[in-house]
Structures
1.
Amino acid sequence: MGVLVVTGTGTDVGKTVVTAAVAALAVDRGRKVAVLKPVQTGVAPGEPGDLAVVERLAGPVTTRELRRFPDPLSPEAAARRVGRPGLTPADIAGAAAELDEDHDLVLVEGAGGLLVRFDANGGTLADVAWALAAPVLVVAHSGLGTLNTTALTAEALQRRGVESIGVVVGRWPAEPDLAARSNLIDLPVVAGAPLLGVLPDGIAGLDPASFRAVARDSLSPWLDGDFDSDVFTALHTA
């Protein structure tokens, strides 16, 4: 696949766990994988960030974090708070392209949603994907409100001529309500792309072997898993 950009429809949707799951299955297939986190916010120097989660769950992957800011804000706002310039899409695309030279798969995990600003000029993860000509995997919430944010994300990608390969539900609840179950039917419609996975909530606490097994059951063959969206949807909407 080369480079795959992972975005969320907002914060706290499970982007990091989805990124780790995709990486874990690719590593299990013998691929050399890199994960790029352009900007980590809300984490102090020396504290474990998103890449620490990926390293623990996915196994032997190359990780790279370009900038880190302590305030839990957008990358541009967090950089402004400490008087530093933000990263440009060209900076991020360049780092991804460098990793792509000697890796089979490079995953670029964004911060927040697709159009969160990285720099004062308004550069976003969508611009990074466009610069790399890389497809995007959209991670969405399961419940009420997710259809609107997913549709907006899909429209933004389409307007920029960026391919969306599919949508993954990043945090499927143990007891899904009516909205979550109904959204299994509607999410791929509003995303304009297939449902490529549904990951159970809370799996970040598993050991690596158990995590990999759940990832395999929860992600589509497009992402090296065994997940069948038709079967899963039928089971939960019957």
Note: The mean pLDDT is 96.
2.
Amino acid sequence: MAVIGLAALTPATRPLLNDQRIAGLDRRQLACHVLLRIPVGTVAWEEIAFRGVLQAALRRVLAEPAATAVGSAVFGLWHIRPTAEALAVNRLAAGRGARITAVTAVAAGTAGAGALLSLLRERSGSLAAPVLLHLAANCAAPLASALARPADDWPGR
């Protein structure tokens, strides 16, 4: 999250944050995205499903490390489609090999994040800690993308 913030503040790296899914949003739509869609439609749903239900079900049949590994792998796999869509919308990773590499890297990174979120769930005994970290991570990128956008590029201006 700190890296995303630094990228937004550094003129040379701002173009890397140009996410077309965010570029078309006006301020009200961005607020709705960050305050409603991400927290309720993504974070709460995913944390209940993955760290709440799936992790509990896996722990009934597997030892804790195996349950965390399987749940985290499923969490990574869950992010394949949205990653492929984001790459396409933003015209990144043009060739098939580049797309496969990028999607694989993001899925692996997301699985690692899932393991961290599972650890937070286990250590805290609550979904609150993983929800807050997941929320911060998911909201950082669209906010940084919006902050990196020149003020006169906002729709409706």
Note: The chain has one domain: 2-150.
3.
Amino acid sequence: MPRASWKGFLRLSLVSCPIYLAPASTRTKSIRLHQVWQPKAGRGAPVEDDDEDDRPPQPATRSFSEDFDDTRSEPPAPTRVALRPHDPYTGEEIEREEVARGYEYERGRFVTFTPAELKALDVESSKSIDLETFVPRTEVDPVYFSNPYYVYPDGPIAVETFRVIGAAMTEAGEVGIGRVTLSRRERPVMVEPRGAGMVLITLRASEEVRASAFERSDAEIDLDMVAIAETIIKRRSGRFDPATFRDRY
């Protein structure tokens, strides 16, 4: 059984059934690079001393390139950098308790919020996804797609109602549009049948999608060039196989 990331109800007018969502996508493990202080030669390096036993042991950290060049002398070892809040005008370090979250409504002018005030701004969580509108699947532009989830019936009692809602959408050839609160934020969603289950895709708001700036040209297209391009496309036509797309970072 997939791990649920949200539980609630899928509601179609007076018909509803308990469901749960499980992410349909995953993120590859991120490669985190830390900020480090790498002293230049002669700065921060250990001073030559005849009494080697009194010197503290140095970390055996090497840079990536030095693993392939053993002719170089050992440079000072990199050291993690600690970032602390400070006054940008005086450079004086300030206490973290004095750091607040604020919104810059004018240049250099902020309104600050306490944790309690930010909590009060949270959208009231609803445990129902109301399918308010139904539209043809082709009318939903993929540029609005955000995060996909698989929708599962939550328990044996929910299976029949779940299948009825899915079959009705399949018969109508349409998908449901609704809203759900995920991670303290209300998001528009699209729900579509997918085999024996359903898929829910969170949608971007209209202000999150930029309008296209394609320039229309009335110039005639070379039909011979189009024919050559069509021939190439036909030769390279195949089936979409997501297994061939891998993160090669």
Note: Residues 6-21+122-208 form a domain with the Ku70; Chain: A; Domain 2 fold (CATH 2.40.290.10).
4.
Amino acid sequence: MKNHAKTFPIEMMAKILQVSRSSYYLPQEPSKRSLENQEIVKKIKEIHKKSRNTYGSPRIQKVLEKEGVRCSKARVARLMQKSQIRAKMTKAWKRTTKQKQGAIAAPNHLDQNFKVDEPNKAWVSDITYIPTEEGWLYVSISLDLFSRKIIGLGMGNSLETSLVLKTLGQAFIHRTPVAGLMHHSDRGCQYTSGIFKTLMEKHQILLSMSGTGYCYDNAVAESFFHTLKTEHTNFYKYRTREEAMNSIFEYIEIFYNRERIHSTLGYISPVDYESLWEMKMCADS
């Protein structure tokens, strides 16, 4: 009747079809597709909330898939747009460290080869700045390229070399570096300092450094800081450095390493990725 309402009178169609005219005006039962969409949107909201509102449609579609819900990326994107569900994201603001004049940098041994087949083969490191009402909080990380896991974290109010030494010391606690491990960074004065190079030589770690002005040479570390800022720190106004430190530590240890899924890892977390690798190694031995 609805399809022909503009062509034929409602009263005439009701008489021919032998139904009451009032039935045309009754609310229609929702379709099967509509009911499915309602359930999917409910699950999307749960996943989005669990992700701390950071997941967009590609990640949410992968989580739905793992939970046994068959739904295309286009459908998820459409339902999210209709329900006004968006990944929170802010514009990243970045400053970089500078190379000390006259310092000798290591060659770029990594050469943008970011795909690594086992842990402790290549680590990358970088430093960024987080604003607080007390002043800058300097954050340094060591990241294992194999799993994208943050294995070392240093934070403080100074850009002295001690910041990266603290970060590296934490990485040594969490990992057992073997001779030949590659450590890649930019050419910041912290990484070209004599004390840092001596520590690398002591552990037989191969130093690798980005070319001058080539941010893509350390793209994975840069990408992590972009994620940290656009998903987390840019949404806060920290009163003290300690408040910022606690916030960043919680984001990395609780969410980033253990829960946040990574497209480069097949949409699983760094911790889960390493666990699967360890299980495979045990099964093969």
Note: The beta strands are 122-132, 135-144, 149-156, 182-185, 206-209.
